[in-house]
Amino acid sequence: MARTYAAITGIHGFVPEYVLSNKELEKMVDTNDEWIVSRTGIRERRILKVPDAGSSYLGIKAVEGLLKKTNTDPSEIDLVICSTATPDMMFPDTANIISDRVGIRKAFTFDLHAACSGFLFALTTGAKYIESGGFKKVIIVGADKMSSITDYTDRATCILFGDGAGAVLLEPTEEPIGVMDSLLRSDGVGTKYLYQKGGGSYHPATHETVDNKEHFIYQDGKPVFKAAIEGMADVVGKMMARNGLAADDVSWVVPHQANLRIIEQVARYASFPMEKVMVNIHKYGNTTTATIPLCLWEYQDRLKKGDNLILTAFGGGFTWGAIWVKWAYNP
Ligand code: UT7
User: Fold this and answer.
1) CATH of 5-177, one of 3.30.56.10, 3.40.1670.10, 3.40.47.10, 3.30.1320.10
2) CA of 101 to the centre of ligand 1 (A)
3) How far is the CA of 214 from the centre of ligand 1 (A)?
4) pLDDT tens figures, 73-109
5) Does the reported pTM lie above 0.85?
6) What is the distance between the alpha carbons of residues 174 and 14, in angstroms, rounded to a whole number?
7) pLDDT per residue over 218-274, tens digit each?
8) Distance between the two ends of the chain, CA-based, in angstroms?
9) Ligand 1: does its nearest atom lie under 6 Å from the Cβ of 35?
């Protein structure tokens, strides 16, 4: 029997209107544009200012746009997976809320948490459902309102993050295109370097957790920086080797956008020239699970059917991975 592949047949992204520039951050914390640009590559990020709006607001915009541009009726969708580190609520899942608001009624939906690697974990999971043969249309949406867990008095983290969402549609095909292979990893050694301590069952919200700023993101940047380069370079190399892919066979690298210096080093290790590497960190900063679909969305007009893409991410947990995607359609 022919293998069923999960093809990406549509992509859409959404970022909120408000632009938080490095200049504005200079007025909030002891930082400066030169430091931020030279250490991270970030010039500005988008912040969701709409009142009473969480990550689902961003996800709804991305999914609505995706349904429209792919001419898909919400009733055709079988499954929605939302990767997010900033769910609207502890429960119900943000995937549930997004689906309800866009009129998806005949699907099952769930959230998947893998911090900045969430989109890769969700894409791999969604592809497996398609490959099983029982699912025809699956949406993967990465949505994060990082500003909701960012401490705007902490210069070490507040310069990094932004808000955004991106969504893809997966459909089955017998043509060898789509999600071709994926290599995902987790290691709890990373727990102490990158976390949001408060608000879960370990440290439920109390006056003390609020006073201790436990509801904000904490990051010890240096060890994460080192592990991110080593982790991504390792899985990208291994995945390309096991599929017989050389750097020349790859049209685009789609890396998680956490730090331009990390992206450049991973590209160097894998011998990819920067012209083949998707970068939009200067405009959006680190949008956690949304970075990879936002890159695909922005570069979609330059993608051709059959192009080999290597997606790679690293994040809290630690979690990391690489996915080989063969692009399924022309612009
Ligand atoms: O997406 C999830 C995974 N996350 C990542 O991959 C992020 C990995 N880490 C990083 O990208 C980098 O470690 C950061 C961008 C977070 C930090 O860059 P760094 O080059 O590692 O800087 P550092 O934390 O070692 O700080 C260097 C200096 C320190 O001053 P001293 O001790 O040398 O006097 C910091 O206090 O820079 C200072 N500093 C700042 N200065 C101006 C830290 N933040 C700032 C700031 N503005 N915003």
Assistant:
1) 3.40.47.10
2) 39
3) 20
4) 999 999 999 999 999 999 999 999 999 999 999 999 9
5) yes
6) 31
7) 999 999 999 999 999 999 999 999 999 999 999 999 999 999 999 999 999 999 999
8) 31
9) yes
Cis peptide before 87, with omega less than 30 degrees from 0?
no
Q: How far is the CA of 202 from the centre of ligand 1 (A)?
A: 28
In this predicted structure, the answer to whether residue 1 has a pLDDT above a threshold of 80 is no
- Give, in order, the Cα–Cα distances in Å from 228 to each of 123, 133, 276, 310: 20, 35, 20, 16
Find the helix or strand (DSSP H, E) in which 124 lies.
helix 118-131
Whether the CB of 221 sits within 6 Å of ligand 1: yes
CA 224 remoteness from chain centre: 17
In the sheet with 178-186, reading across from the earlier edge strand, the strands are 178-186, 319-326, 308-315, 252-255
Which protein residue has the closest C-alpha to ligand 1 atom 21?
222
Q: What is the C-alpha separation between 160 and 225, in angstroms, rounded? A: 13
Which pair of structure tokens corresponds to residue 224? 């994460």
Give domain 180-326's CATH number out of 3.40.47.10, 2.40.50.40, 3.20.20.150, 3.40.50.620. Answer: 3.40.47.10
Helix, coil or strand: residue 239 = helix
2 — pLDDT class (breaks 50, 70, 90): confident
Nearest to 317 by CA among 224, 252, 232: 224
Angstrom distance (rounded) from CA 194 to CA 218: 6
Which tokens belong to 318?
A: 């630690």
Residue 148 β-bridge partners: none
| Tokens describing residue 130 | 């398609």
Tell the residue nearest (CA) to atom 39 of ligand 1. 156
